[in-house]
Write a structure and sequence with these properties.
Strand content: 15-25%
Distance between the termini: 49 Å
Largest sheet: 4 strands, parallel
CATH topology: Rossmann fold
Structural class: alpha/beta
Oligomer: single chain
Helix content: 25-40%
Bound molecules: zinc ion
């Protein structure tokens, strides 16, 4: 019914989609470089980046490497700048199955999925929050609710460019705000883990007793 709005083609390679495929075809999903972090959520580069600064983190799972040759890189750009978040959602659904089948995330204990919010101004500009699309991709296979109105991000204050690193961190920390009680444990979702500054600022705004499992679709490789 929607095929006239979203043509039934892989958004990445253009081949016609088969029944059951949505956004990206299976061949493109298989081309995503898997990290296998779901097999060791407390022993991976994502965990090492985030956990030292975030005592409420119980595990970190980033699905695929966000590297130069990875299709994920293009998919994130399409979601952020071209109004096409569908491929990211496909990648998230694929990741959801990988985690459910061979991962060590205790899904039966999770109380919901909490996407990292974006500011109202950015939401107006972009039309959607790509972390919400990722949350949707995880929510159906896992049977977990998305906590839509529990967390918000206030407009970014004055230009970040004039600020020192510490000042930027301080203002980032104040950006995030819980607007409702957050159940525990929960899955916190973002698109790509880079330095972890945004996720850390966001996690610090959650009540201390909330146990968080972080899931991102991508992770950058550390420069060596
Ligand atoms: Zn494809």
């Amino acid at each position: 019914m929607w095929s006239w709005v979203f043509p039934r083609q892989c958004g990445s390679c253009g081949t016609p989609l088969l029944a059951g495929e949505e956004g990206a075809c299976i061949a493109c999903l298989l081309r995503l470089p898997q990290t296998l972090f779901w097999r060791r959520p407390q022993q991976n580069d994502g965990y090492y980046r985030l956990a030292p600064l975030n005592p409420n983190i119980r595990g970190v799972i980033c699905g695929f490497w966000y590297t130069a040759g990875s299709p994920l890189r293009i998919w994130v750009q399409l979601a952020k700048y071209s109004g096409r978040p569908h491929l990211l959602r496909s990648a998230a659904t694929y990741l959801a199955y990988l985690i459910a089948e061979e991962g060590l995330l205790p899904l039966d204990r999770m109380q919901g999925i909490l996407p990292i919010p974006i500011s109202a101004a950015r939401l107006r500009r972009r039309g959607y929050n790509q972390a919400e699309w990722i949350a949707q991709g995880l929510s159906t296979p896992w049977g977990l609710p998305i906590l839509h109105r529990h967390w918000k991000r206030q407009g970014a204050s004055a230009s970040q460019l004039q600020k020192t690193r510490i000042q930027r961190w301080e203002s980032l920390k104040e950006d995030f705000l819980c607007t409702q009680a957050i159940p525990s444990p929960i899955v916190v979702v973002d698109d790509v883990l880079t330095t972890g500054a945004t996720l850390t600022a966001a996690l610090h705004s959650l009540p201390v007793q909330v146990e968080a499992w972080v899931v991102t679709v991508g992770i950058t490789q550390r420069r060596r």
